Amino acid sequence: MNIGASGFILIIVVTLLLFGPSKLPQLGRAIGTTLSEFKAGARALTQDEDAGRRSAEKSGEGGAKSS
């Protein structure tokens, strides 16, 4: 599902109408902070899972692969 140029412009216009130009920097910061926290959490989960998998393989419990 690709958003074309006209769809992108429509989203910007609706956002400006809903929040106004003075609120957009605050909204952008909030979205950026939320995305960075989500990425950090997802990265931590994958690192924990990889570490658990490695420790299970070292102890001999990881004979079967799981998906």
Structure description:
The chain has 67 residues and is mainly α. The two termini are 28 Å apart. It is found in: Cell membrane.
Mean pLDDT: 83
The percent range for helix content is: over 70%
The class by helix and strand makeup works out as: mainly alpha
Number of helices: 2
Number of strands: 0
Q: What is the N-to-C order of secondary-structure elements (H for helix, E for strand)?
A: HH
The general outline is elongated
Amino-to-carboxy terminus distance: 28 Å
Low-confidence stretches: none
Content of β-strand: under 5%
What is the strand and helix layout of this fold?
Blueprint: H1 5-19, H2 24-58
Key features?
transmembrane helix; protein transport; TatA/E; mainly alpha; 75% helix; transmembrane
Task: Give a summary of the structure in a few sentences.
With 67 residues, this protein is mostly helical.
